[in-house]
């Protein structure tokens, strides 16, 4: 199939379209779907939290895979399930809306948590996994709040690879 120069020029974006942010070129994407900067802003270093994370979550981890396993085990041990949590940030891959409250039942399987820590919730009669980084505990114990806070800190600092 041959393309004429005029047809090809219409198909390719012009220079202004190429320089425009993705949300202007593709209106079906919204800015909060791409990056939600309010949800996880870079936090200053907290030496006490860093020490706790290094000693409890990722102790003796030799690489990213072992860090993920360490985090999964640490969160599973420290979080007291079930607990109420609120969605703090909307995400295109999640059905939850910002501000929605759900009951978190347990951690997702280790296999499902290879890129991010996921927890299982019951939502509209279905059990589904959502990222723990998008939830904040509403009514929970101190250990649960501290463990989730440590995970949020780890993600906000950019340590999650």
Overview of this protein structure:
The protein is of the alpha+beta class and 161 residues long. The protein has one domain: Calcium binding protein CcbP, beta-barrel domain (SH3 type barrels, Roll), CATH 2.30.30. The protein is 38% helix and 18% strand. The chain has 7 helices and 5 strands. The protein has a 5-stranded antiparallel beta sheet with strand order 4-3-2-1-5. Helix 6 runs antiparallel to helix 7. The longest helix is centred in the middle third of the chain and has 15 residues. The radius of gyration is 20 Å and the shape is globular. About 7% of the residues have low confidence.
Observed structural traits:
161 residues; alpha+beta; SH3 type barrels; 5-stranded antiparallel beta sheet; 5 strands; 38% helix; 18% strand
Strand content: 15-25%
Largest sheet: 5 strands, antiparallel
> Would you identify the CATH architecture?
Roll
The residue-averaged pLDDT reads 82
**Low confidence ranges:** 28-39
- Helices and strands, in order, run as HHHHHHEEEEEH
Distance between the termini: 43 Å
- If you compute it from the alpha carbons, what radius of gyration comes out, rounded to the nearest whole angstrom? 20 Å
Strands in their spatial order, largest beta sheet: 4-3-2-1-5
Contiguous helical run count: 7
Helix content: 25-40%
The count of β-strands is: 5
* Overall number of domains: 1
At the first level of CATH, the class is Mainly Beta
What's the name of the CATH homologous superfamily? Calcium binding protein CcbP, beta-barrel domain
The quaternary structure here is single chain
CATH topology: SH3 type barrels
**Shape category:** globular
């Amino acid at each position: 199939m041959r393309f004429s120069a005029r047809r090809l020029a219409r198909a390719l974006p012009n220079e202004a379209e190429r320089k425009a942010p993705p949300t202007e070129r593709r209106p079906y994407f919204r800015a909060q779907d791409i990056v939600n900067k309010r949800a996880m802003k870079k936090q200053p270093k907290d030496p006490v939290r860093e020490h706790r994370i290094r000693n409890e979550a990722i102790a003796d981890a030799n690489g990213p895979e072992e860090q993920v396993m360490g985090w999964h085990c640490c969160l599973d041990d420290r979080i007291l399930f079930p607990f109420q949590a609120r969605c703090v940030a909307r995400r295109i891959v999640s059905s939850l809306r910002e501000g929605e409250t759900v009951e978190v039942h347990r951690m997702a399987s280790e296999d499902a948590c290879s890129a991010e820590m996921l927890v299982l919730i019951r939502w509209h009669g279905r059990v589904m996994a959502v990222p723990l980084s998008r939830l904040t505990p509403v009514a929970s114990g101190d250990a649960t709040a501290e463990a989730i806070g440590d995970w949020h800190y780890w993600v906000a600092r950019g340590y999650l690879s």
